[in-house]
Amino acid sequence: MAPDDAILIAELRIDEGVRYVQYLDSLGIPTTGVGHNLKVKPLPAGWAFPLTDEQVNELLAGDLAEVFSGLDSRLEWWRSQSYSRQRVLANMCFNVGVEGLLGFHNTLGFIKDGAYEDAAKGMLSSKWARQVGQRANRLADMMVQG
């Protein structure tokens, strides 16, 4: 999987939405673009709202590069999974961050061991699933189907 992965990008644009102005996410965090956390990473100098498509895409590419780097350094085995399961992990990591994803201890263990139905159950029984709704159902289905 590469930072310019078109399928993952399309999924994130649907799951996170695309906004060209600043807004507060469900946790009250200032956000823009495709789920870009402005509290953690403010806009580059000279940028102003509303953002352009090019700027939104640049923020997303940078955020995805960080997701992939974090997954590579903290879950060395994630790239051995099927393409669909890699997208599930990347999508979840994009949403909750690497540290948040690492909180799914049992679920990650099930994925690593190939117990994908158990992993999906763990995903769906989480606080995260209650927060993201249909997104969790779709990602859990992807985890099972591979």
What does this structure look like?
The chain has 146 residues and is mainly alpha-helical. It has a single domain (6-145), classed as Lysozyme. It is built from seven helices and three strands; from the N terminus they run H-E-E-E-H-H-H-H-H-H. The chain has a three-stranded antiparallel sheet. Helix 1 (6-16) crosses helix 3, helix 2 (53-74) crosses helix 3 and helix 4 (105-113) runs antiparallel to helix 5. The two termini are 15 Å apart.
Biggest sheet: strand arrangement: 1-2-3
In the CATH hierarchy, what is the architecture at level 2?
Orthogonal Bundle
Which CATH top level class fits? Mainly Alpha
Q: pLDDT under 50 segments (min length 5)?
A: none
Q: Topology as H/E string? A: HEEEHHHHHH
- Computed structural class: mainly alpha
Inertia-based shape: elongated
Question: What is the strand content?
Answer: 5-15%
Estimate nothing, just give the exact number of structural domains. 1
What is the CA-based Rg, rounded?
15 Å
Number of helices, where a helix is a run of at least 4 consecutive DSSP H or I residues? 7
β-strand number: 3
- Main sheet overview: 3 strands, antiparallel
Write the layout of secondary structure elements.
Blueprint: H1 6-16, E1 19-24, E2 30-33, E3 36-37, H2 53-74, H3 83-102, H4 105-113, H5 116-124, H6 127-132, H7 134-145
Antiparallel strand pairs: 1-2, 2-3
